[in-house]
Amino acid sequence: MNRFPLAAGIAVAATLLSTTPAAQAEPAPRTLHAAPDGSGTACTPVRPCSLEGARDAARSVDGRDVRIELGDGTYTLNRPLELGAADSGRDGHTVTWTAAPEAHPVLSGGRALTGWYANPDGTWTAPAPEGVTPRQLFVAGERAVRARGDACPAAVCDATRTGMTGAQATGIAHWARPTDAEAVIRVRWRNYHCRIAGVSGDVMTFAQPCWTNAASGTGRTGPAWDTTTVDSTRYSKVSFFENARELLDEPGEFVWNSAARTVTYLPRTGEDMRHAKAVTPITENLLTLDGAHDVRVTGIGFAYAAYHQPSTDEGYAGTQAGLTLTGATGPEDHAGRHYTKPAAALTVRGGRHVVVEGASFSHLGGAGVIFEQGTQDSTLTRSRFTDLSSGAAYIGDTEPQPAAELAGARNTVSYNTVRRAGVEYTDAVGIWAGYEAGTVVDHNTLDDLPYSGISVGWGWNQPEAQASVLRDNRITNNRITNVMRAAYDQHDGGAVYTQGAQPGTVISGNYINRSAHGNTERDGNGIYLDEQSSHITVARNVITRIGYKWVSNWADYGIDNHATGNWTDTAAPALAGTGSTMTDNLTGLDVLPTEALKVAEAAGADGRGRVEQLRPDLARTGTATQSSTDGTAAATRATDGDTTTDTRTLAEPGAWWQLDLGAVSHVGQIEVWNNSSMTTADFDVRLATKADFSDATTVHVTGKALRPTLLDTDTEARFVRIELTGTGRVALSHVLVHP
Prior knowledge:
There is one protein chain. The chain is mainly beta and 739 residues long. The protein contains 5 helices and 62 strands. Strands 1-2-5-24-29-32-36-40-43-46-49-52-54 form a 13-stranded parallel beta sheet, with helices on one face. 52% of the residues are buried.
């Protein structure tokens, strides 16, 4: 028999539930306050703490979330703010470092240069504080340029494993301080910055180990087949020498004199150095999280962080993607396991459940963010990166089979905006991930980058890298525009670049426009499945205006890759490797269909980006002829909608390629794409309404055609002829005629 009436039982139960701990409300977060001039231990809005004071106060808070609010202003740091395991959220709680309401706090590693005085030649000079070696200078928030000269071709500046000729021809032998200057060299995907160590007659030597690490023969500089060192056959020139007083001739340039410990600057129009704010980065790392978990960093700015290594004898011996070879000795390594990442403003090591959100990274001498040494389940989101010497984000490491506690997994990089990264170290990429599993790179906007946009994977198919933890990565819905910029002379990359076998990896929904557009070589790609890239799906991407291939997988050891349902304005050879397929792709388009426009518009950080529609091509329906044909390289290959097929005439005086549009049309612009060997040079483009060209309008192109050379014409024409002004061949991969 029931001993209690039903209603009474319910009342007793309700009373018991209301008094149990589980039913009690979660305590409100403890809020601590910091300010640039904060001190003490109160950490209140009226008496805020320093950053370290707020950190230390948070360590004593138990049983609730902690919120550390940073007041408005600049927090000038001489050392990084360091957060460790003791600064983590405990028992399911979170520690949040955030901007106070309406505040815009900035962690800065910069130091103002003051005491400027004018020189008779229009330059201004300021002393540098003791211990400061200015490598970058920002005046009124705008990056100045280290004084630089012109390129020096290999015929003059001949690089060997021990040094370089050309000191006399360049004038370096007569500079007042040649040992303050550096040679900046770009070879394919690599970038080198090595300081001159000495000059003897016509020969220059360079700081060590920088020069040895930039040259061949160490066994540590990449795969055995590597031909991108300074003494390789791929070396063609010094891009420029920089940081010499004799080169200071353009407004906005500066030079550092290590003996006098001064910076000399040539102001831009309107700049008054008596009042201008001039800042140089001095502190490398601004915030480090080492072994921390359940930490959020939101709404905080990071600016003027330094990167000291390139100014030392280590220099910058670039390997790929902004990583360098360092040290005078080390294990033989062809897979890049022992390469060094750049310094970053914010670094997370061994983190768990770390979130960086709504941050800004600007005016940096190195990189923005690094997640490394086993960081897992962490997120970089809705942040902005602009004007960085190196890359924006580095996720993971270069060890293919790390110990479990050092394996990077399930990290996310999403809804970020990256513009003008790699400003100084032009081999850097926007977003890099090494040997990672389950990494998501989604809905980011990347624009104006010298080399590749997003790079995932590592190892160059070397034996030690062929089995790795790489798998299940997702590169989705990103907007990548104006990358592999031709002006920076970096080659062999792509808007999206991968390496290594990555089962389950997907590249989908990305909008890629202008990768290596206007390139001087034929190796710029949209999506580049390089070096053993395997088991990857490439689906529903919109890829336009690419310097060479919209998708590239040239190596037979890259297997089981599948490209399906993509939209592009050119074609590409079939994917190499066993089991690889290309299906249902719409190629050679001159108008993007509605579905493609929707995919492109939805890509990127805000999902509202402008899509550059393709322009109708009158050449597609025209009749192509040429003065002669070498083998099977017919004239029609320039109008087949494919930038990977080439025409070619015989070598002859006045060789020509011609197009009959069939009727007189208004021609607004012509795109001339050189062939894969960059053959066509010094030619006239003639447009006429009459077949005998008696009423022709002529535009002359000096030097080699690019991929493409763009010519604005704005004239009526039926006939278009590309004709050499001397003797040689005309060889073209693509000619487009836009109304």
